[in-house]
Amino acid sequence: MTNEKNTALLDIKNISKNFGHTQALTDFSLHLKQGSFCCLLGPSGCGKSTALRLIAGLDMPDSGTIRIKGQTMNNIPPQKRNVGMVFQHYALFPHMSVAENIAFGIQDHPPGEQKLLVEKMLDMVRLGKYEKRSISELSGGEQQRVALARALVKSPELLLLDEPFSNLDIRLKESMHEELFELIRQVNITTILVTHDQEEAMSLGDTIVLMNQGKIEQAGTPQELYCQPESSFCANFLGRVNLFSRDAFHTLFLPTDILPTVTKNSYSFVAIRPESFKLAENHEKAAIELEIIRSTFHGSFFRYVAKPASDDAPELECTIEKSADSTLLHTGRRYRFTFDTASLCLLPH
Amino acid sequence: MSLIRRKPPRHSWYLWCLSVCVFFLLGVLIVYPTVSVLLSSFSPQGTFSFNNYTTLFHSSKFFRLFCQSILVSLGSASLATLFGTILAILVVKTVSPFRKIIALISVLPIILPGFVTSIAYIFLFGRNGLITYKLLHISWDVYSWKSVLILQSIDQTTTAFLMLAAALSSLGSKPEEAAKMLGAEDWRILWQITIKLVKPMIFGAFLLNFIAAMGDFSTPLIVGGPFDTLASASYTELIGKYNISMAATYNIALLIIAMLVFYGYNHFTNCKNEELSWRSGKSAPLTLDGFRGIILRSIAAIFLLFVLLLSLAVIIAAFTKRSYNATSFTLEYFTMVSERGFASTVYTILFSFCVGILTAFFGQVLAYLIQRVRIPAGGIIDFIATIPFALPGTLIGVGYAIAFNRPPLLLTGTWFIIVMNLVVRKMPLGIRTGTAILQKQDSSLDEAAKLLGASSFRTFFTINLPLLKASILICSLYAFVTTIQALGSIIFIITPGTKLLSVDVFEAVIKGELGVAAAYSFIMLLIGLTGGALFYFISTRNQG
Q1: Has this prediction a pTM greater than 0.90?
Q2: Of A31, A82, A282, B367, which residue is the least packed, with the fewest Cβ within 10 Å?
Q3: Does the distance separating the beta carbons of A93 and B179 come in below 8 Å?
């Protein structure tokens, strides 16, 4: 038995989609293994929802191929793809009860089996006694669980989630994240989540595909995208960052001796994460002097906005972890900072 | 009516004054004529008695009229709802080619009122009809209940189509897409999801069509022949026998039926208040192919071809003359029309224009007073102003004929009373539009204006009204177009001095002058078409 074939659950090669004159998606490729969790991340209008709809079969690509388990899906209607989907506002059928909603996809099963399956799904999403409820009686979180149960009841090959958390409040969102994560690990289903929330993408996905203007900007693990961004867009989109043009970076940091000799020549931007900064020890000569302008407290750390001595230099952001020996830096005073040069990101564009 | 009940505000004295003024106006224009009809039905010889009702219930004629009206109205309302629903599904939910053309032809009956299609129908299928006699050489009796049924259902289809199209597009395409992702085939989605979700609207459209068919008197009069209904009998009683009291009695019977049905309509269209919001998608999610798709499209095609045929027939009838089996082009009818003068054309344009503007403006003001300012007894005002929606046209007509033909308000024959009659008829539409728009508009805009020191008055004129320009224009154009063909409510109060095109058409048909009627209809169609084109242009441009 070759393992080759089984590992590639979803294989997308160079698909493109235009709506009229706007290019919604250009040259999109994606390769997913069975059981992986992929997040399509990007600002609104970046093409992530279009990609999801093409995978679902709700729209057809203009070019390129989509394969699920090696089978070409391009001209197969969504009904025959065996793909489950949770819509942004859940799209539950308001005229049906919870049980009827879940059973909708398995109408060809014998009634007794349907009932068992519905009960099993409801137990799984922890809505045990909710069969008879009408949809309008459910809270947002409950609706989401029903939508999930409805999508999973046919045990699809692939689960698509279209911004399912966008209309939950932040507390509920976090608990739903954990629940979803557990559930998906449990059924071991390959999942694609569309989101514009970078924290959500980083905490849930084992792969993130960052998209911008209909194209893939960068794909990789959350750590790769955060620590080794390949573009200023990526550095900016995931987490907070201090971004400098090459010239600004040089005028600011070359005199400070912090920099090692920069070997790579082809870069035009430099990114430094705020947490890379730390207060310089007295004996360290290589440091930059910054004046604190604002400070905010975030529980486990302080965030400072600081300004270098030269007038036209941009403001910087640095975060200092709150620990027993760290003291609050005072606004208006100057402090000497240094940073870990290994965490510098040199970006070509 | 808003779902959130706020604490009733304490009203200042001028709001009370405003409320009293509105009540007074509505009382004079709606309640007074309706009550006049009721009183008149109880006083056949000027003294109070139940005579009319006892003769009514003892005569087999009334029973016959009642059953005939109900049966034919049920039939035409069902047919119209079926056509309207099929057309709306094809236009909104499928990727059919010619979707725009289908939509356009479906709303064509708006400018093609029942008495005009009746002319075209007789021209095509009558004893000397172009199709039945010239083409097929058959002679059949066109004047029967079947013709009434066909013409009424064509006339009502537009209402059903517009209601269903609005409901279906506000649903968006997400429900169908979700069902697709669960493996359901197109036809199962159509039955179990799409149709089920708009079922209240389908019932609502059916009941509305039923009321309209019950109140329609012109179609049975023109193509019904010996077949008559409550509405047409009330016309014959008033105009033919000049028996106001009996006409009033028939109308009261109509009113009771209409009110009962209207209650049902409100029930169906209000209980669909789902809290779930669908984001409307632009894509048409269903294909609906196969044998059943062909049947569906054939039904739609037959309807559309018939409407086109009828509109074409009006034009042909207006320009051709037939003698000794030869058909020739003629302008004779238009010469006759111009000899009679174009006063009615001018009046029609002028009156419809006034009605359009007044309806939209008053509708908006009333909606604002009820929804936002919350004047005292706003709910009752809303209810009274909506009553004319359910009233049969002939009832309002008879009511105005009785109420304003005697002191203290001797107004029959003045342009004022005709315009007011028409405005009252269209007012429910104005208020509904106004309310719908206000509900869509964030009330924080008002609140922001008020916090900045603007009075309610200033807020309305500087914030609400400018934002509503497009909607007001659309509403007034719709009122304009539909007023051009208004007949039932004004036919009893028209005098030679204030004649309208619709009345000219109707009288010409009754006299048997088919050509002249067609010529008048042609002019009416042109005016309606202009208004309709403007309506279409503005409403599509502002869709965003």
Answers
A1: no
A2: A282
A3: yes
